[in-house]
Specification:
By secondary structure, the protein is of the alpha+beta class. The protein has 12 helices and 17 strands.
């Protein structure tokens, strides 16, 4: 997900007058059982900088929050410090997971008011924190299941461009000093740049309901549509519609299970998520898939195992599509792609490389995708069958088919 420019073109000026214009993914907030330990995991396994903290040492008596950064990705890992905090009961029901996909906007209060007027339900009302450096205003609406979208607007030293340069995220945070993994990660980068898209799982029959919600409340439009003939095997399937913000900078695919001989990955997610919709995975963009995946593998990240037979046909399929539309063939080393177990797909705009981790915690309810785009803006339709077969193998090992 790229960032909206603020130039003086007519389209840019018009976008600034729309309260629901989304500038960027401000941050992704996780609820976790132990933020200190989770921060260490994401720093070591995925190369994030443990950049800032808000906890007892900064006067926060409600929760501990760690800000992790890499490229234009900002993750907040939050742990409740008492049973009264909403995250405490939520994690008991759902386990660790993503609570909030927060968007930077020009005016958080106006965006929230517009979303509520459009039929959205309030998650929390506008609130502003301020100090001598500036202000941060946030307001939230409830989307599917446990998930919230926060609108965030910033002024002064908390303005988004300054945040990207390493400024303090919000009043009450402080910089983390002397964290050894930060220096290591700067010398051994994983190359993750920004959030490419964020995928949600909802119950059977609810996908179109949430598609309409994103259209009506958020002003999104449908970007892609995949049915059970596109995404499935002989045993399981799902249906998916990709929703995109008006400027197509923010993409939110929504999945629902489809009928099959066995339990789909979406139903497995719901079963282990207290039958509650939520975020299935974050796709993180890199400019160099091979280097990123190699570094992540060296750090112990578990990826899905792609069958060897996949590589017997992929190059003919992918390169035939590329050449038929006047594009060059895949430039990455084919043997290295196979050795790293990376998936490749193409369309009329170019090609992409992608790979999916195994679940990031014991419940099979959240994973990451590492994706590199060479023109293609699709989601790897040609890989769906191989991906599902790999997922079914993992479900079988977990006893969830």
């Amino acid at each position: 997900m790229a960032t909206l420019g603020t130039g003086s073109s007519p389209s840019a000026v018009a976008s600034m007058t729309d309260p629901l214009t989304l500038i960027d993914v401000d941050h992704v907030r996780f609820f976790v059982g132990n933020a200190k330990q989770s921060a260490h995991f994401y720093a070591y396994a995925f190369g994030f900088q443990v950049d800032q903290i808000s906890d007892l040492t900064t006067g926060n008596r409600e929760s501990a929050q760690y800000l992790l950064t890499q490229g234009n990705i900002r993750l907040i890992l939050e742990t409740p410090l008492s049973a009264a905090h909403p995250a405490a009961s939520e994690m008991k029901l759902h386990g660790d997971g993503i609570k909030d996909i927060a968007f930077t906007v020009f005016d958080a209060e106006r965006a929230w008011e517009c979303a509520i007027k459009n039929g959205g339900h309030c998650a929390y009302e506008p609130r502003t924190t301020r100090d001598a450096g500036g202000t941060v205003t946030m307001a939230g609406i409830q989307t599917y299941g446990r998930v919230v979208h926060s609108f965030v607007s910033r002024t002064g030293s908390y303005d988004l461009p300054k945040i990207k340069q390493g400024s303090i995220l919000a009043p009450g945070f402080r910089k983390v000093e002397g964290y050894g993994l930060n220096a290591f990660n700067l010398k051994h980068p994983c190359g993750l740049k920004f959030v490419d898209h964020c995928v949600g799982n909802v119950e059977l029959g609810k996908m179109n309901e949430w598609v309409k919600w994103y259209e009506d409340v958020m002003g999104f439009k449908m970007f892609k549509h995949f049915d059970d003939k596109d995404i499935g095997t002989d045993f399981s399937a799902l249906m998916s519609k990709v929703m995109a913000s008006g400027n197509q900078l923010i993409k939110m695919p929504i999945n629902e299970p489809a009928e099959g001989k066995r339990k789909s990955q979406i139903q497995e997610y719901l079963d282990w998520h207290n039958l509650t919709p939520g975020i299935q995975h974050l796709a993180l963009r890199t400019d160099d898939e091979l280097t990123s995946v190699a570094e992540l593998r060296n750090r112990g990240v578990d990826f899905l195992e792609i069958p060897e037979a996949y590589y017997e046909t992929v190059w003919k399929r992918v390169n035939a599509m590329l050449t038929s539309h006047g594009h060059s063939a895949v430039k990455e080393d084919h043997e290295r792609v196979r050795d790293l177990g990376i998936l490749v797909d193409s369309d009329d705009e170019g090609y992409l490389l992608q790979l999916f981790t195994k679940p990031l915690q014991d419940r099979p309810t959240l994973f990451f995708e590492i994706i590199c785009r060479r023109g293609s803006q699709s989601f790897g339709k040609g890989n769906f069958k191989a991906l599902f077969e790999a997922l079914e193998d993992e479900q079988g090992r977990r006893g969830n088919l």
